[in-house]
Amino acid sequence: MTQSVDHETVVSRLLGADDILILCHKNPDGDTLGSGAALCLALRRLGKTAAVLCSDPIPAMYAFLPITVFDGSFAPRFVVAVDVAGIQLFGDKNNMPRYAEHVDLCIDHHASNSGYAYESLVDGSAAAAAELLTSLIPELGVELTPDIAACLYTGLATDTGCFRFTNTTAATHRAAARLIEAGADVATLNERLFECRSHARMEAERMALESLEYYYGDRCAMICLTWDQIQAAGVAGAELEDLTSLPRSIEGVEVGLTLRQQKDGSYKISVRTGNQTNACSIARRLGGGGHPRAAGCEISGNLDNAKHAILDEVKKELDRAAQAAEPDA
């Protein structure tokens, strides 16, 4: 069982450590990579040996991040995980299981964090792990340089949908302002992250929209991509992340589902909800987790099984929401 710790303890642990390995989650997004890169830069500025490890390759859209990838040149003596809510999210490539079993410190913003690390700093009110690190890094005595600020802004902006999602708070905007003041070139970063889509990404979106289905009086919308379609489009996993907002963006849809088949045949399911339903409740009942408006899980089996399983949980949540909205008898 993990021990919850505060900022002061995290700072003490990091200042006292060396040969530090920073772990990101599989299918890496902007927050896990941006947070990992920023923390690594900060630790190296303190004269420490540090590097970042991920089970999967770094997507091309994040190639601009100055990430020092772990090459095995040192033996890790302290392991930190950033933006990883559960041990199953680390993946099994690049020798990841060896390090994921002994995580000394977890820095995360998922309230559903499973407590796999020896010590954890988890703040479910933060929009991103990068929001936590925006205050933690200066507490280490490290200046927020333009490079560090760019990494943290990447995490902050991608996990909030460029500050559109409901997880965005006043504190999130204050963190963004701090990063802008530190030299983050937000115009260039926003263009790279939100205004540039590859031909492969657009082909994947076309195929996903062709699969669009509605359920429960059009209160739920679902799109699906098979592994063959993803391969045919030639699109990287990270480029598919913003597809998850498409079903929920349809007028009248309360629950949006995006099903993406993985190489092993399982389905990664992203759940996005409106204010009346809880995405995390839906995903958690299938072994996943996340946030009230954005969550996910993985389901083994064929597409019909995956659809049946997730739709059954969506119906329960929609029924619960409808019952809660009824006036007292």
From TrEMBL:
Name this polypeptide is given: Bifunctional oligoribonuclease/PAP phosphatase NrnA
InterPro entries the UniProt entry points to: DDH_dom (IPR001667), DHH_sf (IPR038763), DHHA1_dom (IPR003156), Oligoribo/pAp-PDE_c-di-AMP_PDE (IPR051319)
Start and end residues of each DDH domain: 20-155
MF GO annotations: nucleic acid binding
Lineage summary: Bacteria, Bacillati, Bacillota, Clostridia, Eubacteriales
Domain of life, per lineage: Bacteria
Coiled-coil residue spans: none
Location of the DHHA1 domain: 234-315
